[in-house]
## 1
Amino acid sequence: MKIQLLSQNLVNQIAAGEVIERPSSIIKELMENAIDAGANEIIVEVVDAGKSFISLSDDGAGMDKESLELCVLSHATSKLSSENLFDIHTFGFRGEALPSIASVSRLSITSADNSFSEAWTISLEGTSKPQLSLANRKKGTTVEVRDLFFATPARLKFLKSNSIELDFCYDSFRRTALAFPDKTFKFFEDNREKLFYCKTDDLQQRVRDVLGDSFAENTFEIKAEKDKLKLHGFIGVPTFNKASMSNQYFFVNKRFVKDKNFSYALRSAYAGLAPAGRYATAVLFLDIPYNEVDVNAHPAKVEIRFKESEKIRFFVLSELKKALSSFGAMKPTTEMIASSFPSHTYFIPAKRSIPREETAPTASHIFFRSEQEIFTNINLEEGYTLIPEEQSLSLNMKRKISLGNAIHQLGNTYIIAENDDNLIIVDQHAAAERITLEKLRNDLTLETQTLLLPEICPLKKSQIEQLETNNDIMLKFGIHYEKLAPDLISINALPAILGTCDAKALVKDIVEELSTFGDAYAINEKIYRILSTISCHGSLRAGKKLTIQEMNSLLRQMEDTANIAQCCHGRPSYVILSSKKINKFFERS
């Protein structure tokens, strides 16, 4: 076939297909332009979920007549000061957004800057020639987009219902508002104000405004800095988990991104703390030198590439683990009882009324004797994880809790305790599970068990290369194999604790994890599940009657156990009700 050049309008429509997926894509692009222009207030208006009309007004630097004429041309931008595409300090530098929007809608832009007393409007639609006219407005820019996809009606058919498209618009708006608490944002739908975020110096207040009281009350702040990397934001307590990743917000240099390094770090940090199939909540900001990240990897600028992704992943993961170890995993969620008790109290400073000597725990209070004897001789040498010891989830907590004195056992399942003006309810089995698990995690050394019959395991050549690269890791975990061919190995030994597990499935899962992330956290999770099962069967059960002394013994052990806010399956182990909360429930002032 003969090669021919595409028309500029068709080029713009192709670019629009990459950049302008739906109305929310336009809102994202225009908001980023407004941020780059130094706007302090951004107002978004939509009609018909953005299909009929989108408007964005800002009080930014604005444009003069010459710049206004250029801004609708392909790859015309004020965002690049040099030829270096790997040192980008702005958002909308690709130069495709405005001409792409114009190619699929009716676009008008009105703008004025500080240097000129007059404002100008440029209007264009599809292939039509741009029209310039004088306008009347103060410094700043207003962009109006009408009849989205009128020039490409086939694209319009791919849009969802108005309610779904409106949710996408809200999401784009909220993400930008989260990243810039120092700016004011307003969102109007069909001439009604729907969202309003007033500027603030407090990021937590902006998180509360955007994501709600429940999110703010069940998250805690994280701050970390190493070399040229800075991580800050808020992560949820493990029991405040969701059914999807929609409550995970990641920003790199204030740019919202979807990045596997962050999602993997969260998943690994919360492994064993949140239930299977549930996802942690987070609003995380990573500040990194601009020349160490490629933000030009995707037309919509949501997916990025790090120069040293392994370094980023390890930094984020280690800091999340430190934060959870020192505080977060000790704190129960306020949502457990939110429907009945609207206010919240979720952390009690340490203050014991009973001396520790009077309630010294005995093994029989928590373990069945047979399980206790099985693990009597297990001790920690090098440990079973590649994560450095100072980053382990089983670290001693920097902040202690106090669970008071037991006063009653309800249904032979729940311990009722009091501490000053607080009422504490403990699920005895969930608490004992976590205590048992943490003991095992701190007293475990993996031993190797040679297989009676080696397992022959076919793999891809690249996967075997991953195994050879990480052979020291495999040996540390007690996994011995022999390479039989470029695409075939023989599995000769596995960790004894795994028993009669499927050797091939285990190795394939580890290889897949190594190929994706470059480390071996997958096996940690598998070992964790084995330990969780042992803990569940070897711990104090629900339905067992306890004496007051046994209940207090359990409470004291809970106070010294990491991650005690949840059992090994991620379910909550205790809740706290303050007298203030109870008074509010009974409508007492």
## 2
Amino acid sequence: MRRLRSLARLWMLLAHSAPLVLAAAGATAAGIEVRTDLGDIRGVVRNGALEFRGIPYAAAPVGKLRWALPQPATAWPGVRDAGNFGKACAQTRRYELTEASTHEDCLTLNVSVPADIASGEKLPVLFWIYGGAFVGGSSGLYRLDRLASRGRMVVVSVNYRIGVLGFMAIKGVDRDFNGDFGLEDQRYALRWVQRNIAAFGGDRDNVTVAGESAGAGSVCMHLLSPRRVDGLFHKAIVQSGGCLQEMPTLAKAIDDSDKDNPPLWKKVAAEVGCGDAADVLACLRGTAVDKLLAAQDKFSVGVMTLSPVVENGTVPAAGAAAARSGELMRLPLMMGGTRDELRLYVAYYKLFSPFVADYSEARLRSFWLPGFYGKDAPDPADAAQTRYDAIVRQYDAAKGLDGARVGSMLSDYQSAVGINNCLYLKTADAFLSWMPAIYQLEFADANAPVLGVGIARGMDPKFALGAVHSSELNYFFPNLSNTAAIDAPDLAPASQAMADQMVAYWAAFAATGAPAPAGLPAWPRYVKGGTKVMLFEPGNVGPYDAATRHRCAFWGRLYP
């Protein structure tokens, strides 16, 4: 650590006296060295942060380690270059954005530290888990320097197994972790943090675990597993994930008794030629990764095909059951999401499934409502149909239901996926008596960049997008484009000013458990009912009544 600090001061001197020299040096192997428990690593300075990328924290999960607990990585001799991100874990390309990968030797993490870290300074740690519907994403999409330098934190991001390799339960695998290999990777990386983060100036006793979308769902699963994660983190941030969303149980995920509706592992095994193998698991472990990914895509349907399972050793109980019993991590919690979450997925349907990109009342009844609210919707004779009549009236179908309006309806509440504002409030209500403090947020910048970020360049659904799912990420991770290029445009001035505020709130929460930075509007603790939620809208940052805005009483009557 002494060497890190002395070299950091040298780099800062170079930065102020010769920025061109610094830029050139940052692009070479010359940099800062830190000793980890597996060997020495050399990082570089970028954008005011000391950065160490692509650090192995577990062995490659290949061969017999496929669908198994993570195992220790091999120590390396000499000094390992840590200037570049590790490879993304195996996945296919999604929505013309994230790049495909067939890499399984991908269990690496990244650490960013303020470049001006002072001698003896002990900084809070923020551990970031990326999203991607549990089938995509990579830590290599996120620049950590802004949170590290402006927030004065040590920021860690992690790659973990996704898709069929990370979240497909298989009959014959140990019940203790079956179906949740990606979650076990994250916990293994959190143990790495406990062993090593002090060498980077981080405080192992002040770790905040944070995630968005599938990353938020991952944080939820950790909150529901207090005995398995005790001591690994001390605060949590859940962005765009409702911890009460119903998740598949392990028993259901592996049950192959219904020959007409086999579970995913059975379908994948048959597709890749392992269906009749004497040892299906061994056969799958010997199958080329590209074949497994192709089978995964063939059987992917709906918004969430793969996800963690519950009622195993990794996640003992579902969210609702854990909230009733109090079997939860009890810690300061920040949670919430974006105002127009599901407009992003309505846009994806329009761009990639144009046969459903129709927002008439007829299409609402035949596709949108049954798809997101339940399969009983198409039958007009069903008594439950009256609730859909009420939904149509609520959103004024007589004036037309364009993509923005349908997206807003789904963003208020729907039961298909745990991304909606009323579910966030319901989760906070359920957790409130167990947590020392909950701080609820809603991101509502209607000018947040989406085209070229959450939607690929050159694509435009031709309706108002607003503050869609994941649109807040650029406010913490500069130029996030959902590609390895990290080349989205800078934020507009008003949005950037609010981004500075958001980073300050996050940093204060990570440091103290209360988002109370000096000089900014007070963020009240959450109270039951959703009337004190912190709104983040340029020029309008402060508490507001989110439950009324999202019609949660209306939805609660339909779906108690």
## 3
Amino acid sequence: MTSSNENYQGVLDAINEVRARNGESAQNNPPNWKGIINALQSLNKWGQVENGDTPPGYVPDYDSGGSITGSHYNPQPDNGRLWFDIRSGRLLIWQDDGWYQTNGADGLPFFATSAPASEVPGALWFNTANLNLYIYDGNNWILISSPTGATTTTALPLTSAESNLFPVPTDIQTQNQANAYFIGAVSTLQTNVTALQTEQAAPISASAPSATTAGEFWFNSTTLELRVSYGGAWVPASLPLTDDTDFVALSTTVTNNYTTTTNLITASNVRITALENVPLRTLTLAVDSNEKAIVLNDSAATNTQVKFLGTNGIGITVTASDITVDAADVLTAASGLITATGWGTAITNLTTRTTTLETDVTALQNTPVVSVSAFNTLNTTVSGLPTTSDLNLKVDKSSPSFTTDVDFNNNRLLQVGTATASTDGVNKAYADAIKTYADNTFITQTASTLGNLIISRTNLSSPALDFSGSHTNSFEAFKFKTYGGSGTVTFGVTTYTNEYAYTFTGDEEFSWIGASGKTAFIDDTGITTEALTIANISRNSGGTQVLSNTIDVKERISTYQTALIGVRTALNTSSDYASFKTAALTALANI
């Protein structure tokens, strides 16, 4: 059964995958509802237009000397993605192979070897063939610059305000000198950052190295946990990460299923295409007036004919649209023959008489044959049987006497008195009284409603309520109706091995309420508590509960959070590794 942490972590991993596709680093949110909310809120930025000096996903390419030789995108922007270039103050959109301005030709030139077919006044066109720049006045393209005499950065002077930005060195007077200075400064900065990263690299191993200097880091490759040396011991520097093995397995399964489904769809498309290319078989009906036949024309086989031949007084007439069969001559000859012989009426009378005789013969064959002597014997036997009057004077041998209170037609005895002996029969009134007493005194197995139930136990070795006869007895053993809501709550075993559960159907919560109010509750979003303590639990000789090695989780997390904020502040404010180490140790001092 999958745990809730794994479900939550799967959602967080999916959100981090979205961030990765958009060129963002993963976030380490806790695997709970709060962490999911934080992760979802971090996605709000993609509902807005991105802005910056470079497009989203832009990655420069460097040569061995650190010079930019080109660029690529990771990831490639999707068509329709927007970016606001803060350098030019223009909104651009990605389409197929590049970024295009969304608000018309208000300053970005049109690049091509020939002028655009139509433009608005003020539009710019850069002729990539001769490197000339033109502006459109509404009728013509006017040349505004060319490579001849173009200004370069070699002698482009800096203003006094720009020169004051770079007091060291003092020889920066032109844009070219400033560019060289900037490139050298960035290269030096990159070298120093690389050296600092190498200096800060923490050892990675399954077993802890010797903790010598406070502030040193070590990454535990077994628990995926970063620790810092403090007081001669390695203490956690952050909350441990959770394993995403289940998500990787799920991703693999989805990928395999996608590949299988794609192959099946491709095979189905091939078969459908083959079926579509099979020529249709056409069947049509026609009339052949020469052959006096109906013809079945088959585009895929030999045609078939059904011929009609008129003989012995039957005429066949065939036109282009129908076939007519005329047997009038045969009908006329038959009618004349019947009239001439007079057999019509005679045949009808003979048929009726024959039917009547057949019915009489069948009835006679089904009548039993009784001889005269046998009938006389039966009559003598019947005459000797008792009459009704004779039977009225007799009774059954098991009942010596009866009164008018006996009703054999309705199978009952009437006017039965109140029972006085253990062998006496009882009347309905007596039985109804016993039933009323039992209903008011005892609980039946099928009873569905009880009043207040008070249990006084005399045998403490047996439970007061026992559902252990079968696991089915314990399924939803208790059921409660929610106050103020339409849901219900049940408690008992479930269909999973060794599992007991409170099952909610609505917005219910299971709460722990003490004298000072609610201290904890569980609802469909998870567990909420004012305080959480982890400890070893035992009892002293008097049976009183004793806690040892207690950890206040809320206080501990708050301490970690404060320390991590201090470490983050140290990263943002420290100018070198030594100052960062000092500030980090100060922030981690209370852990």
